Amino acid sequence: MSGRRFVDEDLRGARFDRCLLSGAVLRGVDVGGMEIDSPWLTEPGGTLVVNGVDVVAYVDAELDRRFPGRALRRAADPDALREAWTAVERAWRATCERAAALPPGAVDESVAGEWSFSQTLRHLVMATDVWLRRAVLGVEEPFHPLGQPHAEYVTDGFDVSVFAPGVPAYADVLAARADRMSIVRGFIGTVTPELLAETRENPWAPGHAETVLSCLQTILEEEWEHHRYAVRDLGRR
Questions:
Q1: What region holds the DinB-like domain (predicted)?
Q2: Which of 49, 66, 198, 228 is most buried per CB count within 10 Å?
């Protein structure tokens, strides 16, 4: 489909999941009610031009306003990282309290085909295991069985059989999540500038180096993006 031109097509209600649309051009289109969700939109160098205006900076600033603490996700020194993680925990504490007020079983229900609230927490367990326990700490068997991988993680060198099938009890998910959050808190609590500058192997791209700092920043990005998803879907219930 790359490079194809669509003229006078009716795409109302169409849904595009995990599609590569970078560089796509829309001219003379009716986009009323159109919804775009791109977790990579606000990465350095990203652009989204609407009627000649690049809206990325506005979107980024608005998300920082809506989610206090999100602006710290690119913290680069030990003190700032500790402040950033405190903000993450504060945000998730409030959101989990909100989820606790839902009817029984609602945390395991999908909204519009997205992950359930419980699955989101499970994925963040896995994100901690990938970027801290595996990449930074080098734990031989880093993955909690309640972790939630993406379907596309079934790649060479990644054995998804370590993850438990089925729908686990939400109390067990909360316990796993609390354990992994405490591991991040403990590591950041004692991290030094020298350790942040050390390099590790990218867990998804063997042979490519990451700093310990970039691994921690990836965890922060994961936390805030999935928090945004969770809040979005709680608002749709």
A1: 88-229
A2: 228
